Amino acid sequence: MLHCADCGAPHLETLARWRCDCGGPLSLPLGPGLTRAAVCAGEPSFWRYAAALPVRPDARGVYFGEGMTPLVPRRWGGRRVDFKLDFLFPSGSFKDRGAAVLINALAQRGVEQVHADSSGNAGAAIATYAGAAGIGCTVYVPAGNSVGKRVQIAACGARVVEVEGPREASFRAAARAADEGSVYASHNWNPLFAEGLKTVAFELWEQYGFQAPDVILAPAGYGGIVLALDRAFQELLRAGAVDRLPRVYGCQSANCAPLHRAALAGDPARAALDLSETLPTVAEGIASTRPVRAREVLEGLARGGGRVVAVAEERIVEAWALLARQGLYVEPTSAVAPAAALELLESGEVPRDARVAILLTGSGLKATERVAAFSRPAERPPLATPA
Amino acid sequence: MLHCADCGAPHLETLARWRCDCGGPLSLPLGPGLTRAAVCAGEPSFWRYAAALPVRPDARGVYFGEGMTPLVPRRWGGRRVDFKLDFLFPSGSFKDRGAAVLINALAQRGVEQVHADSSGNAGAAIATYAGAAGIGCTVYVPAGNSVGKRVQIAACGARVVEVEGPREASFRAAARAADEGSVYASHNWNPLFAEGLKTVAFELWEQYGFQAPDVILAPAGYGGIVLALDRAFQELLRAGAVDRLPRVYGCQSANCAPLHRAALAGDPARAALDLSETLPTVAEGIASTRPVRAREVLEGLARGGGRVVAVAEERIVEAWALLARQGLYVEPTSAVAPAAALELLESGEVPRDARVAILLTGSGLKATERVAAFSRPAERPPLATPA
Fold it and tell me: Which of A93, A282, B279, B291 has the fewest C-beta atoms lying within 10 Å of its C-beta?
C-alpha cells in the first residue's frame, strides 16, 4: 500500500497511477531493514541486501552484478575522508541502483513499454535496464545536456526526445505521455527507484564494519539519494543494526538551489524556482528547479542532523579539478559534494575526527565536452611528428 | 631477474632499460601462482591476489578498490555465455589492472616522472594512477583517436602529446623520449603491466568456483591480455589450483590483424604490417600494426589450444549494437571478442556446452563520437516543446 507524501491519502499500487489526486508523490512505508545475518554474503552484488528490497531479480530478470562499489580513503581538505566510487556501474552512474530495482519490478508485472524524463544519468540507467529486459523505452531529456548521455541512451535502444527549456520541461513532456499506454518509470516519482538507491546505504553500513559513518555527503537535485539514505538508515536503526543515524548533507549548486532556499525559509513549498532565479551550472545532473519531494528531503536531512549546502560554481570546478588530479575522474555534478566537504571541514561544522563518506555519483566520461572546456589542450610539438 | 623474450639474454631490473640490446621486450619469470588458501578473501579488490603479484600497495600507495568486476550470464548466439564487465574501473577500462601494479611498483622505487604511448585506454589508466601517486606523466596518443580518452588523460593532470600517423608513430615518439630522465611506463614493454593484467585471470578462476572456464575470448592488439591470461593460468596450473589451461582466443579486426597473419604464416616475424596493408577499423584500441610480443602471444594461445581470430568490420559493428541493446554499453573495440564468439559458436569450434567467458574491456562512454555515428539521432517533435 502506497501513501501520498504530501496529503497522506492511501493508494493501492497500480501501474497507471504515478501521483496522488492532490498532485503529491507516492511513497512506500519503511521496509523491514536488515541485520548482519540477513545479508547474503556469498552474493557479490548489492542483491546481497535483497531481504531489505521490495523485489529481487527472478530467473528471467536483469542482472549486471551491480553495486558493491569501492570505498577508498583519500586526503581531502587536509584530512582523511572516504570516497565512494558510485559511478562504477554499467551505465556509468549510481542511478543503476534505482533502475535495477524499478525495471526488475516492472518486468515482473509484465510491463512492455516505459518512459521517463531525465537530465541524462537516470535516463541512461533506465534505458540500460529496459534494454536488457526487452522493455521498450522512451526518454525525454533537456536539449543541450551532455551529448555522451544522449548517445548512450539511444545506443541502448531507447527513443530519445530532446525537450527545449529547463529540466522541468522534460518532466512535463513525460507526464503528458503517461496516458498513452506506457508506464512512467520515473526516478523521482516512482518509489521503487528510491528502494534501489537504498543499497548505497547498506553498502556503506557494511563497508564501515556494519556501522553508520558519521557524515555522508551527496549531490542533491530532486534529492533522491538523500531520501534513500534516510529511508535505509531509518530501517537499519529500527532493525537494531545501527545505533544512530548518520548526518547527511544534500549538496546543491548555488546557481540552482531550490532545496537550499526552502531550507533557509523553513518552508518546503519554497523549493520551486523560476528560471530567472537560476544561473547556468556545470552540475547539470542536479540542475532541477522544482524537486517534487522537498518536504521529505528536508525532513530526512534534519532527522540525522544534516542540512542542505549550496556551493558556489567556482568551488565546484576547483573541487572537480582536484579530484581529477587524484585520478577520481567524475562528471562535474559529482564534484558538488566534495566541494561542500571542503567548506564544512574548513568551517569546523564537520569535526576532524568524523568518519566522512563522500558519494561520487557519475563518471567523467559522461561529460567529455564540459571537461574539455576546463582542461588544457593536447600538444602537437614537432618532436612528436614521425620522420 | 628479467630475460629477453626474443633472445633469452638475462637483464638486471633497472628503471632505465626497457628493452634488450637485441631490441626484444623483457619478461619476468613465472610467479608462484595462487592456491585458494592464499587468496585474502576479506579484501574486496583484486589485491586479494597480492600473493601472486610482484608488488602490493604500501601505506603510501595508490588504491582504488579496483577489480572484482562482475561476471554476468547472458544469451549470446543462441546459448549462454558469461560477460566479464571489465570496463568497470576508475579510468573506464581493464588497463587499470596493469597501471595499478606498474605505477605502485614505480612509486615504491621513487620514480617521479613517467611517460607512455597509448591508443587511449592504457594512457588514461597510467595517467589516472600516476596522478593519484603524485607522479608526473606524459602520454603520446595517435591524433584522431577518441576525444573522450584524450580529454580524460589531460584532466588527470598528464601532458598529452598527439602524434600524427599510425599507432606505432606514438610508440616511436615515446621511445625517443625515454632518454630524458623519465621512466617509460609502457603497457606493452614493461612486464609489470602484464603482472597486473593477470588479476583478470585470477578473478575468473575464483568466479568459476576456483576452476578455469573452458574458453576465454579477449580483444588483441599488442596481445597484452592474452599474455597475462596465459601467464596467470600457467601459474595456477603449476600451483595445482587448476587442472588444465583454458582455451584463449585473441580477437583482432580483420582490417588490422598482424597477429592473425603471423599465425597463419606460422611465423611471429610476420606480425608487422605496413599501413598499406590495413584498413580503418572502429576497433581503435587494438589497431596496432606491429605488436612487439608476437611470439609470446602465439605460443601462449597455442598452449591452451586457442588461436587468433580476425573478425570482419561489419560483424564488429553488429555485435556492438547487439551488446548495447542488452545494456552492455562498451566501446567498439570491446565488441571484437563478442563478434568472434558468434562466429566460433556458429561454426561449432566452441562446443555448445563449453563455459565461455568474454571479456568486455572498455566503456562505451569513451567513444561517444564513434557511437553517435552508429545510432539514430534524437527526436525533437513538437509534442515535446513546452507550452
Answer: B279
